[in-house]
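Worked example

This section walks through a single chain of length 257. The input is the sequence exactly as stored; nothing has been trimmed or padded.
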Amino acid sequence: MLVFIDESGHPRPKDSTKRPVLISACIRETDVKRITHDIYKIKMDLYGKQDEIKSTDLIRRQTITKNRTINKEYVDRLIDLVENYDINVFAVIMERPDFEPYIEDGILPKQYFYLLKRIELFCRTHNYPMALVIFDEKNEADDKKISIAFNNFLYKSALGKTFEKILEVPLFVSSGITPGVQLADIMAGIIRHYYENELDKREPVDEFEKWICRLYNIIKRKTENLKDPFKGFVEYGFFIMNKTTFPKSPDDIDRAT
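Given that input, the structure is written out below as tokens.
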């Protein structure tokens, strides 16, 4: 199984996003070629080219106005793919911290730990042999940090050593040419807007919010809650991460995970 990971927003006090999201789109190897073909065809039908289109340019109120109908159709057709293929989605929806989280080189940020745990449990529950994790590349320095922290987690942490399904070879790819990352990017943007507009607490009041709710509900149906066999409690497929969970100092880092 291929697991494409992307994020929308960053958990920092000055970031413009109030509810940053880290997401994984789990796709079977046998479906990758067909999904790639379908996304290629959608782009050619609507835009006549294969340029990357980021969720920040698509998931906004202007998208549903008359002069942006192509962008709306593009998003709708991508989410139709998510609905119609055997794709599974897990997400960490973060509360933006009002302090700068402490980040230690070589230690995986907490939100990645939560996401990887769900991927591992999913593979165990459904007897998938292995999961290859694929990240949206950023820059050489940041990608190297994540790669080192990823392997440290699997090889050195008490919890990571119990993981049997996640391959210790993370890949970093360009979202511009990798449809799996493009799907993850669009879904992360939709989930972020859903929670930033507090649509989990109230009914939508305009066409944009109704659109976001419809797309979100399709995505939400592609996740599942998983039982932790070690501790016995449920790990929710869409996990809400409170801002108090972020470490403030080295003393707050749980090196067992």
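What to look for: The two ends are 24 Å apart (CA to CA).
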